[in-house]
User: Which sequence fits this backbone?
């Protein structure tokens, strides 16, 4: 089987969903359902963002917004948030602008092209979100410093990334993925780097434990390998595959959320400025 690079697969999906708002909404719902990292991130956002939403208008930076799935969740979940979404890919941003045009007119979200290595927005945000971005950037501490500078005093930073334990999926012929600057982070890595950047860790936790990782293999890894090798010819087989594996995979993901883990192929950190 071939090595996997996410970007070409993501670009292929971007082209498919570009022409239809309905398809894009369905795609967002699939991402929320299939990716366990989204379950963890949305849980922390509900908890911490809910507190901010009760205090009045607050600002959030989505640093590396990608398709914009978290922006959709944030705008729907919180009434008083103002979102700034930035990404390096202008085509992704333009697609998101079309999707969020009503929210843009209402002033609830802006979408701008930006390089996180050059981010310069002093004391602008109450919350910064950065999901599966830092593993792509060699100078990750520099980005963390820029994010710390963009946060208001006591502002929160929430990130997710592959962990050092994802090594088995980052090497060999079935590598996931080729675009990473590093395999991932350990809990200690993140504590050191966050503090070096001027952020105090509040909560660090592994994601995708043994049950969650198994579910990821069933509903993400193997289907992506089949799509890479057989392209559209894989779709009929995948439809039958998901019919049988999706229910148990979702159960494993739910159990992963409820268990304490000393190991996982993903990791998230919540940190505070000041």
Assistant:
């Amino acid at each position: 089987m071939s090595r996997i690079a996410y970007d070409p697969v993501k670009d292929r999906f971007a082209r498919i969903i570009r022409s239809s708002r309905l398809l894009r909404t369905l795609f967002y719902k699939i991402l929320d359902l299939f990716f366990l990292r989204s379950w963890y991130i949305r849980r922390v956002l509900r908890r911490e963002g809910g507190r901010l939403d009760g205090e009045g208008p607050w600002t959030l930076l989505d640093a590396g917004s990608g398709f914009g799935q978290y922006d959709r969740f944030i705008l729907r979940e919180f009434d008083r948030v103002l979102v700034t979404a930035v990404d390096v890919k202008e085509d992704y941003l333009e697609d998101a602008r079309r999707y969020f045009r009503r929210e843009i007119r209402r002033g609830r979200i802006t979408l701008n092209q930006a390089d996180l290595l050059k981010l310069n927005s002093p004391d602008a945000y109450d919350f910064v979100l950065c999901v599966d971005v830092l593993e792509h950037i060699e100078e990750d501490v520099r980005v963390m410093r820029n994010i710390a500078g963009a946060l208001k005093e006591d502002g929160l930073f929430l990130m997710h990334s592959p962990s050092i334990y994802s090594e088995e999926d980052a090497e060999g012929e079935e590598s996931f993925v080729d675009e990473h600057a590093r395999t991932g982070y350990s809990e200690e890595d993140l504590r050191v780097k966050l503090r070096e950047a001027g952020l105090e860790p509040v909560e660090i936790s592994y994601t995708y434990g043994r049950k969650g990782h198994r579910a990821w293999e069933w509903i993400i890894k193997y289907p992506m390998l089949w799509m890479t090798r057989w392209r559209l010819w894989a779709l009929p087989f995948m439809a039958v595959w998901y019919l049988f594996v999706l229910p148990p995979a979702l159960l494993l993901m739910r159990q992963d959320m409820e268990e304490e883990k000393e190991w996982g192929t993903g990791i998230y950190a919540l940190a505070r400025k000041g």
